[in-house]
Design a protein that fits this description.
Oligomer: single chain
Shape: globular
Distance between the termini: 55 Å
Helix content: 25-40%
Largest sheet: 8 strands, parallel, barrel
Length: about 230
């Protein structure tokens, strides 16, 4: 079954997420963020949880990549089960993103079984968030339609820096026969351009656009009054 990716090649997508204690946490503010992103020519939105997805779907027709973070952040918690995927699709997500690593999944299914269930029951494209080239290859072999660099620097064994992992994007683009999405610590126009030059099909930017609390911290850190 062929499922098309719902956003065009060369797109900028915006991740609209805020967790407590961020004052912007909540469906209404995430919907406003999505409207602002659309007004700025974003081609799609990434959003977490059925409540936020439903609120965003209520204000835009842009494609929504739905995720559903459940469980322990130290393990597989990005849309860890087919039921978690169904919840965001029912709320209005156009496709789903899931943890695409080879780590144990909470329901004991393999990644391939997880992807197969989403394709069969929900008929939406699946984006696999990975941290390494090996896990990118594992996710593609498991049936993922899109592979994203989202988890680089956020799993044990991968180094987290202040910069995006463009090298991972380039290597995934060289090795895999599917769209590669760049995500994770993209802050500047040059970061986005570098990812597209490296072969990214699209780039997702989150904190640099939708998290003024973190943006303020970055800027305040270089002032004389920084603690």
């Amino acid at each position: 079954m062929k499922i098309d990716v719902p956003f065009p090649h060369g797109s900028l997508l915006v991740s609209c997420q805020a967790k407590p204690p961020n004052p912007l946490h909540g469906p209404e503010t995430m919907a406003l963020m999505a409207r602002a992103a659309e007004a700025g020519n974003a081609a799609g939105i990434r959003a977490n949880g059925p409540d936020d997805v439903a609120a965003i779907r209520g204000v835009t027709e842009l494609p929504i990549i739905g995720i559903n973070k459940i469980g322990d952040p130290a393990g597989v918690f990005i849309t860890p089960t087919p039921a978690a995927a169904a919840a965001v699709v029912e709320a209005g997500a156009t496709m789903v993103a899931i943890d695409g690593t080879d780590r144990p999944r909470p329901d004991g299914r393999s990644l391939a079984e997880h992807v197969d269930a989403i394709h069969a029951d929900l008929q939406v494209a699946v984006m696999a968030d990975v941290d390494t080239v090996a896990n990118g290859e594992y996710a593609r072999a498991g049936g993922a339609d899109v592979v994203a660099s989202t988890l680089s620097g956020y799993t044990a064994g991968t180094e987290r820096t202040n910069a995006p992992d463009v090298e991972l994007v380039a290597e995934l683009a060289r090795r895999l026969d599917c769209p590669i999405v760049a995500e994770g610590r993209y802050w500047t126009r040059s970061d986005v351009a570098a990812a597209l030059t490296a072969g990214a099909y699209a780039v997702i930017v989150g904190t640099a656009i939708t998290n003024p609390m973190e943006i303020t911290k970055r800027l305040a850190a270089v002032t004389p009054t920084a603690g």
